[in-house]
Amino acid sequence: MSALQKVLRADSAGAAAQKLYENTHIALAGLVPLAVLSGEGNVGKATDVALGVLIPLHSHVAINSVLSDYVPKSVLGVSRWGALAVTGVTLLGFMKLNLAGPGLTHTVKELWRK
């Protein structure tokens, strides 16, 4: 299976993809509370960048599992490309928010304040 096929079929790409999913799950479980408790300093920025990468990766593997289970085979390939596009746009959006804006954590906190 080529590298592109492994990315497109992240749910069935083998042990490495499953391990990535499990590791992102564990990392997110630790980083989310850290993000909530951290301020606007370097720890907060590093946490935001880590979350900005881990959330799309974790979601990409998970959504591919949903696609495999519920999407008809005739449109599964197109659906996987769509999921990859959404993952890419999400990753870019989070990175822009984290590097050029107030950051993911600050933005979510602001949403809860209003």
UniProtKB/TrEMBL annotation:
Subcellular location, principal: mitochondrion
Any one Pfam family here would be CybS
Localization (cell): Mitochondrion inner membrane
Task: Report which superkingdom the organism of origin falls in.
Answer: Eukaryota
GO CC, any one term? mitochondrial inner membrane
List keywords of the entry alphabetically.
Iron, Membrane, Metal-binding, Mitochondrion, Mitochondrion inner membrane, Transit peptide, Transmembrane, Transmembrane helix, Transport
Membrane topology annotation = Multi-pass membrane protein
Q: Which InterPro entries match?
A: CybS (IPR007992), SQR/QFR_C/D (IPR034804)
The positions annotated for binding heme b are 58
The name on file for this protein is Succinate dehydrogenase [ubiquinone] cytochrome b small subunit
Q: What is the scientific name of the source organism?
A: [Myrmecia] bisecta
Lineage here is: Eukaryota, Viridiplantae, Chlorophyta, core chlorophytes, Trebouxiophyceae
